[in-house]
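Write out a sequence, fold above all:
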Amino acid sequence: MKILHLYPDLMNLYGEYGNVVCLKKHLEDQGFKVKVDEAKLNFKNKFEDYDFVYCGSGLEANLKVALKDLMKHSKSLSKAINNGTYMLFTGNAMELLANSIDGEKGLGLVSLDVETKEKRYTGDVVVENKDFGEIVGFINKSTIIKTKDGLFNYVFKDANLNDSSDKEGYRINNLIGTHIIGPILVKNPKLMRFYVEGIAKQNKKKFVYKEVSYPYEEDSYEVTLNALKERIKK
């Protein structure tokens, strides 16, 4: 089984590499041998050769460098998305697939436009989706997303996240893009299981999920969710 970590040097703020490390461990616990490849600037890797692709958050300047390089691979990325490859783009990496960023052309793979502001929007969040339940995490961004849709509905967000949006993130087939960092897979067991089961079943059609307990992850999720819900009541 192969994982591609996209721009681990440019797009790796807030310990987001933890998403890859934790997912690899979960897949290994299901009996798979997992290889992680890194794709840096001018990489030759083809997205359709991988079971999972991940890109994390980076500085705004690094995002533009990554976008310029990723433009050269838009056909391969689009093909992998259409084929149902599991992917996760977190933090401002989710903006790479937008139609435009500050009026300049993006990859155009998802119908949204990005506008950078001088202000930073930061804070804890709880969002929900019927497939993944309630998701906890943190957002740190300087952009406003213009879109008519969204993957997650906000349950709670700090006052500093007053960008007037009531939805967050997007999904295209098995690719999820979200501003939520955390790392999001480490903090949200149900979302982790979605990826583990999906990736495994694509790799092995008769795969049966083996129940494995991860007390630290499960307890951390419950403590964080309950603490944020208490803030809703105040």
Notes: The radius of gyration is 17 Å. Residues 144 and 164 are 9 Å apart (CA to CA). The first strand starts at residue 2 and ends at 6.
